[in-house]
């Protein structure tokens, strides 16, 4: 199947046995990476799922892409561009609908798999627009409440569930930030599984095996 020209650049792995109700998994990479990064997981994921790995919209120099800028200031220190992140949140939300229509996919069976900045956006999209997402695999990220839509607490989350994992010695995003997610989600009555692995900012084979098992049992 040919990759279609849509609002966000992407690559695909079609389902082996497509149907009128083909589930879809969107991959959202981390800061400074691209759509090829997480796509290495695709061959090991269930083959009845259509996989779309998306390139973040903001090109970096000399290479790589970002969902939003991370600035380094002598006075303010490191800070994220939350307004740009909100724009990406809505770009992803619109792209989900666009891609499901373009590839004839089941818009009621959508999974987001994010890493780092891609996880932060996965949280933002799913908590802001839970009607668009059924499952989230949140790797090495955290919930940034500043980029959620207003009154997100009033959303209907009954069909949403999360698999969350983080490296216990992550040198990029502190484990404490990630560990707040289960309580946050529980207060919203959202089903979630949380695991820690003795690694840094990455995904170990054990971590991948665990997320794959979760995906298979929560399909």
Overall pLDDT level: 94
Class computed from helices, strands and strand pairing: alpha/beta
Main β sheet profile: 7 strands, mixed
Ends distance? 24 Å
Q: Total helix count?
A: 6
What does this structure look like?
Helices cover 28% and strands 23% of the residues. By secondary structure, the chain is an alpha/beta fold. The longest helix is centred in the middle third of the chain and has 21 residues, at 82-102. It is globular, with a radius of gyration of 16 Å. The protein starts with 9 loop residues before the first strand and ends with a helix.
Question: How are the secondary structure elements laid out?
Answer:
Elements: E1 10-13, E2 24-28, H1 36-39, E3 50-54, E4 58-59, E5 65-66, E6 70-73, E7 77-80, H2 82-102, E8 110-115, H3 117-128, E9 135-139, E10 161-167, H4 175-178, H5 181-187, E11 191-197, H6 205-217
Parallel strand pairs: 2-3, 2-8, 8-9, 9-10, 10-11
Antiparallel strand pairs: 1-3, 4-5, 6-7
């Amino acid at each position: 199947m040919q990759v279609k020209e849509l609002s966000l650049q992407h690559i695909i792995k079609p389902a082996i046995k497509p149907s009128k109700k083909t589930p879809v998994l969107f991959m959202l990479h981390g800061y400074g990476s691209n759509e090829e990064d997480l796509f290495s997981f695709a061959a090991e994921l269930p083959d009845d799922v259509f996989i779309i790995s998306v390139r973040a919209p903001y090109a970096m120099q000399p290479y790589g892409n970002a969902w939003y800028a991370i600035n380094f200031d002598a006075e303010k220190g490191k800070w994220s561009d939350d307004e740009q992140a909100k724009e990406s949140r809505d770009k992803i939300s619109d792209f989900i609908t666009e891609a499901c229509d373009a590839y004839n996919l089941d818009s009621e069976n959508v999974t987001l798999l994010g890493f780092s900045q891609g996880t932060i956006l996965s949280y933002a999209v799913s908590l802001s627009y839970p009607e668009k997402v059924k499952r989230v695999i949140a790797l090495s990220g955290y919930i940034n409440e500043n980029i959620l839509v207003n009154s997100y607490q009033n959303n209907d989350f009954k069909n949403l569930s999360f698999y969350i994992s983080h490296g216990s010695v992550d040198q990029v995003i502190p484990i404490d930030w990630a560990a707040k997610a289960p309580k946050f989600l529980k207060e919203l009555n959202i089903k979630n599984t949380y695991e820690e692995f003795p690694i840094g900012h990455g995904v170990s084979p054990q971590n991948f095996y665990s997320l794959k098992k979760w995906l298979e049992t929560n399909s």
